[in-house]
């Protein structure tokens, strides 16, 4: 395509709220054969809410929620925000946390009221040899409803199961369908557990997904598809997504996401809607079709 036609294409995309960093990105977008979509904050709103608080021992709901929320004050994860907000909604006063530590892709730990607390996913509990078997079925049924179950342990003992739900953006299903209709292989990528990921993928009509992917492994999924011969688009919003966005043939950042993601991407979707992906690809294909 001529420099002039590329400029026109970049301008057209901008009118649709799709900011393309350079002409090369516009041209490569037309060749994308596979699109990897991060789940949390990209496909979903990224604003989870607590749906269930299930105490396991003799503590009540407010007491276990207070412990979890006190611990999560130290975390910036969207899941942590959901827990803290839920406690605030119930007018629960939070305490203080000592020795807070966040375990990437797994959860958090720290001391509250002289209890050693551990809060996070199934993998974390297994790693620390906390017995959760009696509650696995309940957790799986939460996950089957596209919710994310988390376990709270005090010392060696499980004391609660807490679930959150993160609603899918209202236009994600339509936007994903447009990509699939364009002949693009759509793959979902998440750190969340397999059962929750499966339920979300089903609601979206996505057949392929990578679940339980650690933050540092997200970019290797991009490489995996590239090795299969795909021209890979990657769409994400988080700090975790930055290396994958940089490695992808075209990286797309959600405009409402983190600055690091935006800086690592070639394209920014200002409106946060995934429709920007099919819009960008349409402009790109039209630009290369018209002038050759
Ligand atoms: P994602 O951004 O897709 O949720 P992460 O790698 O950040 O992926 O987290 C993976 C999983 O680790 C979460 O689904 C959750 O179960 C657990 N986890 C991570 N951070 C926290 C936290 N602050 N509190 C509780 N659980 C957490
Ligand atoms: Mg995300």
From TrEMBL:
It is found in: Cell membrane. Keywords: ATP-binding, Cell membrane, Copper, Copper transport, Ion transport, Membrane, Metal-binding, Nucleotide-binding, Phosphoprotein, Translocase, Transmembrane, Transmembrane helix, Transport. The keyword Membrane applies. The keyword ATP-binding applies. Belongs to the cation transport ATPase (P-type) (TC 3.A.3) family. Type IB subfamily. This is Copper-exporting P-type ATPase. It comes from Marinobacterium sediminicola. The chain holds residues 416 to 707 of 767 of the full protein.
